[in-house]
Write a structure and sequence with these properties.
nine-stranded antiparallel β-sheet; disordered C terminus; alpha+beta
């Protein structure tokens, strides 16, 4: 369970610069999200998320808002359906430089490629100071949420279920001291 929480925490920390920007909300329904990490001791993860406009906006406000205070640079552009972002943020003892490209549609499917370099210490445990990490997120809309699911529910491939709106409580002890704390 700790590995799945770590994967979600890593995703939130590295995607936070993008969440803080003027990102469109995803189409309501069930999204399958695959995450692949390079340069981190975190295995690839697949999860399904039940979303609606309200929960997507809440996640952007909760986690993206934290990045705004911790980031000295946040550039975003959207040209021809390709979104790019470039951010410099302070996370714990580290300063991270994050670049990303998002292609696709928030109605049917998108891919997000994120590259992060840190200086001054590791941004998260297991990250090599001064090292580079890459994360690829592939998401596709698979239909309506299933019976018994509510917006914000995340179902991990191992059967673990949580709600993204409760993620702040789970992450409170996982954020590096003095670092970017989502939602604060």
């Amino acid at each position: 369970m700790r590995r799945q929480l770590a994967a979600i925490a890593v995703t939130v920390l590295f995607a936070a610069p993008a969440l803080a920007l003027d990102m469109p909300t995803r189409k309501a329904g069930l999204w399958e999200v695959k995450m692949v990490f390079e340069g981190l001791p975190v295995p690839a993860q697949t999860m399904r998320q039940c979303v609606d406009q309200t929960t997507d906006q809440a996640v952007m406000a909760q986690f993206g808002g934290a990045a705004q205070g911790a980031c000295s640079k946040q550039d975003f552009s959207n040209a021809g359906g390709t979104m790019t972002f470039d951010a410099v943020c302070k996370i714990g003892p580290a300063t991270t430089a994050t670049k990303g490209v998002i292609t696709g549609s928030f109605d049917s499917g998108y891919t997000m490629n994120i590259t992060t370099k840190s200086t001054g210490g590791p941004a998260i445990p297991g990250m090599t100071p001064g090292g580079e990490t890459k994360m690829t997120i592939e998401a596709k809309h698979v239909g309506p949420c299933q019976a018994g699911q509510k917006p914000g529910d995340i179902m991990m491939s191992n059967g673990m279920k949580m709600n993204v709106l409760d993620l702040q409580k789970m992450m409170d002890g996982m954020t590096p001291p003095g670092g970017m704390t989502p939602g604060r």
